[in-house]
Specification:
The chain is an alpha/beta fold. 17% of the residues lie in helices and 37% in strands. The protein has two helices and eight strands, in the order E-H-E-E-E-E-H-E-E-E. The strands form two sheets. Strands 1-4-3-2 form a four-stranded mixed beta sheet, with helices on one face. A four-stranded mixed beta sheet has the order 5-8-7-6, covered by helices on one side. The longest helix has 12 residues.
């Protein structure tokens, strides 16, 4: 029997929950659903994954996870009109840490990085050259 998944949520442990929450709200249209000391839950009305931000060290985490932080991962969103999104984010002052580029396999992408070092990548898929 398959599991009936009704939503997807990505939980990120960061040092400054408010800074990451403000980043995703300002630049990516998330809205705050719930919040408490060291915790915020963010959502959108479309297919984007929900986000939970937890402060590093928060006791709700198992002891072996409390001191870890989101690192070495990329939160990727597939979009259309990627060049327009890069320009809008650049104009809004978002920290573009990898400018728009196109890979030979048909991926157009750019990255921004939030105040806690969480890398967000926007991706648009196109037909590769010669396909």
């Amino acid at each position: 029997m398959l599991i009936d998944i009704t939503a997807s949520t990505l939980s990120l442990t960061v040092d400054d929950v408010a800074a990451s929450g403000d980043f995703f709200t300002a630049y990516f249209g998330y809205r705050q659903v719930m919040a408490a000391d060291g915790f915020v839950s963010l959502a959108r009305e479309d297919a984007a994954v929900d986000l939970v931000l937890l402060r590093r060290g928060i006791p709700v985490l198992p002891p072996e996870q409390r001191d870890q932080r989101a690192a070495g991962l990329i939160v990727a969103f597939t979009v259309t009109a990627i060049a327009e999104h890069e320009e809008r984010l650049r104009q809004a002052g978002a920290p573009i840490t990898m400018p728009l580029r196109e890979e030979p396999w048909g991926e157009r992408l750019f990255q921004v990085t939030d105040p806690n070092g969480v890398v967000v990548q926007l991706v648009e898929w196109t037909a590769p050259a010669g396909a």
